[in-house]
Amino acid sequence: MIRGAAGIALGLLVLVSCAQRQDPATDMAPGAISLADGETVFRVGGCASCHTTPGETSEDAPHLGGGQELQTRYGTFRVPNISPDNEHGIGTWTEAQFARAMLRGVSPEGQHYYPAFPYTSYARMSARDVANLWAYLQSLPPVRREVRDHDLRFPYNNRGAMAVWKALYFRPTKVVDLGPLSPEVARGQYLVEGPGHCGECHTPRGGLGGLDHDRWLAGGMLPEGQGFAPDITGGEAGLGGLTAEEIASMLIPAPQHISAAEAGYEMEAVRGNLAALPEADRRAIVAYLKAVPGAR
C-alpha cells in the first residue's frame, strides 16, 4: 500500500470525497419489490457460491452463514455471514446500509471493505436490483454462525489504506465503450460487468490487486493464486473462433461424465448459477462477450 505523507493526504481527500458523495440508498428506485427478481440477481451474483455455510448447501433456502476461507498472497480472507441473523449476520442492517455496502464498498460502521467482496463490480448494479436482492436475502433463514475477521499481512491489514486503493482502482462506470448497443448486448454488458462480476476472475490484476481494465476479460490468475481464468473476449485468443451457440453451451452445467476437476470447480459453480437464468439472459451474455474486442 502507499506510504508516507503523500499517501495519507490522498487518503484523506478520498474520504472527504466519499463523504460528500450522495448516499446510493437515497436513489433507491420506487416500485413493487420482486422476490423472484431478487433471486435472479442472487443467482447471477454467485452469492450462494461464496456465502453458503460449508456443508449446508440447500437449493431451496440457502444458509448464508459464511465461513469459507480464501487463501491469497495478501493473507486469508474469510467470507462473512450475510444471513438475516441479528447477531452474526445482516439482520440489523437497514436497506440503505446494504445499498451502501453493495454500491460503495462501505460497511454500516463506515469501514472500507476489501475488494475480495466484489463491490467493484456490484457498484454497476441498478437500484432496483439491489432493492430486490435485499428483499430476497431477508426472506432466507437466519444462521447463528460467527465468522472470524480476515487474517491479512501488513500492510494489507490496514483498512484505512483502502481509501487510497479505491482512489486508484474503483471505477463504477461501464468498463467497455462499445458505442450504440442493441438491447441484447446492453443487457449482457450489465450482467457481465455488474452483478455477474466476470471480470473479477477473467481480468489480470496489478501488484496492488487492481484490475487492468486495458486487458478487460483477457484472462487472469485466480485469486487463490492457483489456476488461470481464460480469455473470454471476442478476440482470436478468446472466444472469437466459437459460435454463439457453442459459447452458450459453455454457460450451463457440464455433462455428468465430466468431473468438476476437469471442468474447473470455479466455473462449474458459475455454470450452476447461470443455468437458473432465463435463456434470453444467457444469450445476452454471449452477445456481449462476442462484442468485447481482444486485448492488445
Short description:
With 296 residues, this protein is mainly α.
Spell out the key features of this protein:
single chain, globular, two-stranded antiparallel sheet, mainly alpha, 5 strands, disordered N terminus, 296 residues
Q: Could you describe the 3D structure shown?
A:
InterPro entries: Cyt_c-like_dom, Cyt_c-like_dom_sf, Cytochrome_c-type_DH. GO terms for molecular function: electron transfer activity; heme binding; metal ion binding. This is C-type cytochrome. The chain has 13 helices and 5 strands. A hairpin with a 6-residue loop joins β4 and β5. The protein starts with a helix and ends in a 5-residue tail after the last helix. The relative contact order is 0.14. The N terminus is likely disordered.
Spatial strand order of the main sheet: 1-2-3
Helix-strand string: HHHEEHHHEHHHEEHHHH
Question: Rg from C-alpha positions?
Answer: 19 Å
Report how far apart the termini are.
28 Å
Number of structurally distinct domains: 2
Unreliably modeled segments: 1-27, 256-265
Helix content: 25-40%
How many distinct helices? 13
Averaged pLDDT, please? 84
Report strand %. under 5%
Structural class: mainly alpha
Major sheet description: 3 strands, antiparallel
Q: What is the count of β-strands?
A: 5
In one word, what is the shape?
Answer: globular
Signal peptide: 1-19
GO molecular function: electron transfer activity; heme binding; metal ion binding
Keywords: Heme, Iron, Metal-binding, Signal
Domain Cytochrome c: 33-141, 183-293
